[in-house]
Design brief:
Elements (H helix, E strand, L loop, with lengths): L1 H23 L7 H23 L4 H22 L2 H12 L17 H10 L1 H11 L5 H15 L5 H18 L3 H15 L10
Helix pairs in contact: 2-3, 5-8, 6-7, 6-8, 7-8, 7-9, 8-9
Length: about 200
């Protein structure tokens, strides 16, 4: 019986610690004394502003208010900068967490038709990347890349540009790696792109 009571008391203590853990570990921007100094300066400035706005600048009362303003502001800042300031700091820091927004759709998750349209729209960028990568290629691969860039720049709209957009990302990687098969494929593709539109797709 006594062991059951001890177990229940231990369980309640664990639950109380678990409930207090989030509050204790709340993220804050300033330490306690840093926050108090900030509030002291803030309230002292507000006290001086109130003296200048509501007390006529003459007589002993004015000078008493001027002398009392920093004392009152310091005391108020010390009090407010404690637990109330810590709660405000934690609330402001917690309120800046990013909210869940719409997740971007990866190109690989798009339907084939939309993915092909996206690749075709990016064709000028891919051709520019191929032209830049050609300087690092072996002679045959460099010549094939230059021929493909020239043919791709003047390729007609429709199936020719779609075929080029579909194969170009892979060809850039393989040509840069010195793949001779990719060089032959690029040469063949450049020749087919240079053909008139009615003969497109027929390998000479």
């Amino acid at each position: 019986m006594a062991s059951d009571k001890r177990a229940r008391r231990t369980g309640r203590r664990v639950q109380a610690r678990a409930g207090a853990a989030p509050a204790a570990s709340a993220q804050v921007l300033l330490g306690d004394w840093q926050r108090r100094v900030v509030f002291m300066l803030l309230f002292s400035g507000l006290a001086f502003a109130a003296v200048g706005a509501f007390v006529a600048p003459r007589g002993a009362g004015y000078w008493f208010a001027v002398a009392a303003a920093p004392v009152i502001g310091t005391l108020m800042g010390f009090v407010v900068g404690g637990a109330p300031g810590r709660a405000l700091d934690a609330r402001l820091m917690g309120g800046g967490a990013p909210k869940d927004g719409p997740r971007p759709i990866l190109p690989a998750a798009l339907p084939a038709a939309q993915r092909l349209a996206l690749q075709t729209a990016l064709l000028p960028v891919l051709l520019s990347e191929l032209a830049g990568a050609a300087e690092r290629m072996a002679p045959r691969e460099r010549a094939a890349a230059h021929a493909l860039v020239e043919a791709g720049a003047t390729a007609p709209e429709g199936e020719p540009r779609q075929a080029l957009a579909r194969d170009l990302p892979r060809l850039i990687v393989e040509l840069t790696a010195g793949n001779a098969v990719a060089a032959g494929e690029a040469e063949d593709l450049a020749r087919r792109l240079a053909l008139p539109a009615p003969r497109m797709g027929v390998t000479p």
